[in-house]
Design goal:
9 helices; globular; about 270 residues; alpha/beta; 8-stranded mixed β-sheet
């Protein structure tokens, strides 16, 4: 072995140099695999339970992959890294309850599969006396998921507070919705913004600890799979798979399995 080879081997053992194979792009869709990125921090869509990746989105992509005769291959990562990983061709798609918005639409193409709203969730008894997504949030600590639509919603609400000459909202960002819920339960946050399905799951998992105040808001927001800009082939495959799941009843069955309201369905 040459001195150069010995040096490279030493760097690998020290963790300073990764083997080249770890930097390679995943197999493409046409190879028989559907490599998807997910941030497993958003119950009930994608989360870890007993060391296993689970959630509505995981069930959906598993069924869809079978429908179009591909093998699902998950890659777990932080939410903020999903679009760069897709653009860098490390992924075929993003499957992570990604909310459709104009900014993201300039970066990726979408295949919507649900529409959902959000709720303002507080500790049982509502000690901060918040009445909903309104000026009662001014001067309060609001917990949101970092980089998610909830963060942009809370920052927009803060601008409303400033415009009304009210105290600013302290927007507290957390890696996962579960972390936001813990902050509310511990009194570190006065409220959190959470998807309506997520609210249902939270109330089921932690009965008696939380309540929702005010009306559901932005109830017509779509969540979608994301594909690379211009990747019409993958987009068409996903759309074909979804239509198959709608036709055979799986789409409706999964909505019922995860206790989602009927209003989330777009098919």
């Amino acid at each position: 072995m040459t001195s150069t080879s010995l040096m490279l081997r030493g760097l690998m053992l020290a963790g300073l140099l990764l083997p080249a194979v770890s930097q390679a792009a995943p197999e493409s869709v046409t190879s028989g695999k559907l490599t998807y990125g997910t941030a497993a921090t958003f119950m009930p869509f994608e989360f870890m339970k007993n060391g296993k990746l689970t959630g509505f989105d995981i069930d959906l992509i598993t069924a869809l992959s079978k429908e179009i005769k591909l093998e699902p291959a998950p890659m777990s990562m932080e939410f903020k890294g999903l679009i760069p990983a897709l653009q860098g061709k490390r992924l075929d798609i993003i499957n992570s309850a990604m909310y459709v918005n104009p900014t993201r639409a300039t970066q990726v193409d979408f295949v919507p599969y649900l529409k959902i709203g959000s709720r303002v969730v507080v500790a049982k008894g509502n000690p901060a006396k918040i009445t909903g997504r309104d000026l009662s949030l001014c001067g309060k600590n609001i917990a949101v998921t970092l980089g998610g639509i909830e963060e942009s919603q809370a920052r927009a609400d803060n601008k409303n507070c400033v415009a009304a000459s009210k105290a600013e909202i302290n927007v507290m960002t957390f890696p996962a919705a579960t972390d936001s819920a813990v902050a509310v339960a511990q009194g570190r946050a006065d409220a959190e913004f959470l998807s309506t399905p997520g609210t249902v799951a939270l109330f089921s998992e932690k009965p008696g600890l939380f309540e929702a105040v005010g009306e559901e808001f932005e109830a017509d927001t779509h969540i979608a799979f994301a594909v690379r800009k211009g990747d019409e082939e993958t987009k068409a495959q996903l759309e074909k798979g979804l239509q198959g799941l709608v036709k055979n009843g799986t789409y409706k069955q999964l909505i019922e399995k995860w206790n989602f309201p009927d209003s989330v369905a777009i098919y």
